[in-house]
Amino acid sequence: xxxxxxxxxxxxxxxxxxxxxxxxxxxxxxxxxxxxxxxxxxxxxxxxxxxxxxxxxxxxxxxxxxxxxxxxxxxxxxxxxxxxxxxxxxxxxxxxxxxxxxxxxxxxxxxxxxxxxxxxxxxxxxxxxxxxxxxxxxxxxxxxxxxxxxxxxxxxxxxxxxxxxxxxxxxxxxxxxxxxxxxxxxxxxxxxxxxxxxxxxxxxxxxxxxxxxxxxxxxxxxxxxxxxxxxxxxxxxxxxxxxxxxxxxxxxxxxxxxxxxxxxxxxxxxxxxxxxxxxxxxxxxxxxxxxxxxxxxxxxxxxxxxxxxxxxxxxxxxxxxxxxxxxxxxxxxxxxxxxxxxxxxxxxxxxxxxxxxxxxxxxxxxxxxxxxxxxxxxxxxxxxxxxxxxxxxxxxxxxxxxxxxxxxxxxxxxxxxxxxxxxxxxxxxxxxxxxxxxxxxxxxxxxxxxxxxxxxxxxxxxxxx
Length: 465
Ligand code: ADQ
Prior knowledge:
Elements: E1 4-10, H1 21-33, E2 36-45, E3 54-58, E4 61-69, H2 70-89, H3 100-117, E5 126-130, H4 137-143, E6 149-153, H5 161-164, H6 170-177, E7 182-185, H7 188-200, E8 205-206, E9 211-214, E10 217-223, H8 230-238, H9 240-252, E11 257-264, H10 271-284, E12 292-299, H11 306-326, E13 334-337, H12 346-351, E14 355-358, H13 367-374, E15 383-387, E16 400-402, H14 407-419, H15 422-438, H16 441-454
Parallel strand pairs: 1-2, 1-5, 2-4, 5-6, 6-7, 7-10, 11-12, 11-14, 12-13, 14-15, 15-16
Antiparallel strand pairs: 3-4, 8-9, 9-10
Bound molecules: adenosine-5'-diphosphate-glucose (ADQ).
The site of adenosine-5'-diphosphate-glucose has 20 residues, from strand 11, strand 12 and helix 13.
Catalytic activity: D-glucose 6-phosphate + UDP-alpha-D-glucose = alpha,alpha-trehalose 6-phosphate + UDP + H(+)
GO molecular function, one term: alpha,alpha-trehalose-phosphate synthase (UDP-forming) activity
InterPro entries: Glyco_trans_20, Trehalose_OtsA
């Protein structure tokens, strides 16, 4: 394989474990090919400052970054990426802000990335572009003459065709996907939405085996559900920080069962719905009340986007009223933490918990579900309550699957999870572990790159957008 060039909005130093499983998995391929990771530096600079690429070495890997001006950042990142694509792709048309200036900024930054990246490329490089911020990047690169093989992976869901069609310029976005050689989605449902969109809106023809032809170009599309690095997570679970966390939690909650939720504070994660289901559980089961505590970690995220302030207030008010109405002098039902918890401590918290509540309203995959399973004690494992609307639900069939909009149903699943006999917990956990071990992050990474290498070489025109 040629050198791998990964492109994403934000980059991480793959040598730091805090960077997470994705960076670890990519680091392996990047290291072995002496690859490059290209993205935004995270810095916002004055428009008059130089926009040169800054290079850093991370072992054999080159990290290459560009800065963004305030105007570009606001339109590209806050505006189009997180104010249009994120809500619509998570089925929240009501939260989208279709300001016409955003799409111009989105395109401008993708053009900037293409302009800065192209001179750094070698003829046999293979490019892997990540996520919704960079959908038109391949089209912009092709317009400048780039002929290398380029793959794209969407980490978030793709909505059904009619919802996608609500985005002004949706046809431009999907046409841009055809500039890639391979387009990957998290789930079969997302892939099906892509197929139905291109058939109905773009009159594309299926060629064979996952290939589609439209706009005079053929693209391969497939489902590549992302996994975790089970071994890396096990090591993290055995490290002192996680062990200490586990022991502290066990001591503090020796007489109570713990339920845990770990999310970014985002409206897609279904946090108010989860709190209402827990409140319902407390209302319906007065005798069980003080036997369980829910720890909800909701780390701050995108705080300068309006919809995020609203969800923060809603969640705070729900937690406050649950604690006010149900709390006792020696017991509070909810511990809500609006801060980031170090990744190294999470496995300890997961292991000390009897139940994980992973109940997003919509999620591309959701890795917390898989990390919770990997951190369990196999002899006495906890139970995963999982939304059927998380991509992970396509794979994790032995979890307790719930509809997060159904408050009563979710409350009933919480009761079932807390009372599940040991034998059943073990059986479910064993089956789930088999899945997350087989379909781990290395399987995902290798599977995508092999599929990308196998795509038919095709003469790439340069008139794209
Ligand atoms: P996210 O929406 O960020 O990612 P998720 O998959 O749940 O969602 O988490 C990604 C990573 O962040 C995990 O390693 C998790 O442990 C960590 N994380 C989440 N909340 C945290 C918290 N409060 N504190 C510390 N760490 C936390 C997007 C998509 C997902 C998809 C991933 C990967 O939205 O659907 O699974 O990308 O493709």
